Amino acid sequence: MFDPNRITFTTLHFDVADHLCQECEAFKLTNIYSNPAREHFLTIYIKRQCSSIHNSFRELLRDSVISDDTSTLSDFTYDSLTRFRQAGGNSDLGPTTHARLAILRHFAYEHPYLLDRVEEEDEGSGTPNPEEIPSEGSPTGEPAKKKRKHGQGGCTTKGKDFWSKVEMWFKA
Predict the structure, then answer these.
(1) Structure pTM?
(2) Mean pLDDT of the region 44-67
(3) Are 151 and 144 a contacting pair, CB within 8 Å?
(4) Cα–Cα distance for residue pair 148/134, rounded to 1 Å
(5) How does pLDDT run across 19-43, given as a tens digit for each residue?
(6) Please, what's the b/e burial string for 125-153 (b: 16 or more CB within 10 A of its CB; e: otherwise)?
(7) Per-residue model confidence as pLDDT tens digits over 112-165
(8) 138 CB-near residues (< 8 Å, 6+ apart)
(9) C-alpha–C-alpha distance, residues 19 and 91, integer Å
(10) Which of 11, 61, 146, 169 could cross-link with 108 by S-S, CB 3.0 to 4.6 Å?
(11) What is residue 31's DSSP assignment?
(12) In angstroms, rounded to a whole number, what is the distance separating the alpha carbons of residues 7 and 3?
């Protein structure tokens, strides 16, 4: 994530898997890379961890730019460094990495709709939500359960998510 030359973020798990395979003796993973079933489980684990890191970094970007508690570039860089930098790494990232983080923050600021930020509605709108009105058939007077709309939630379509748009923006 902190490589200043990285323009592909969605394939980070492939890079991590390749690095672990090349350095399997240093990481003491020789027993895993000698067994295809173990390699498969390691690949699944790497992909989940990288996805979690993507989401956490995207949320940190979002919160640093458009939340109620926005932060400066210096604070964002420090927070990113403490949360996502490899342990024992050099704490001085250099101007290219600072520039990369500034570019990512600028992209997040210009494209807030990609950050999955749900805007809160005003509480005093005056009109009640029809789904929250008690149903007539309900003996306890409890609000009727909301119906779940199909096609919402879950994973964002590939190519329309934040990191895919960032990659397309860097390639353009």
Answers:
(1) 0.70
(2) 91
(3) no
(4) 17
(5) 999 999 999 999 999 899 999 999 9
(6) eeeeeeeeeeeeeeeeeeeeeeeeeeeee
(7) 888 874 433 334 444 444 444 444 554 555 566 665 555 555 666 777 889 899
(8) 144
(9) 21
(10) 61
(11) T
(12) 9
Q: Tell me how far apart the alpha carbons of residues 107 and 65 are, in angstroms, rounded to a whole number.
A: 10
What is the dihedral sign for C-alpha 43, 47, 48, 53?
positive
Contact 42, 65 (CB under 8 A): no
**DSSP conformational letter for 117:** P
Q: By C-alpha distance, which of 152, 1, 26 is closest to 85?
A: 1
Residue type, 25: E
How far is CA 142 from each of CA 127, 133, 138, 147, rounded to the nearest angstrom? Answer: 18, 8, 7, 15
Task: Report in angstroms the alpha-carbon separations of 39 from 26, 28, 30, 32, 152.
Answer: 17, 14, 10, 6, 34
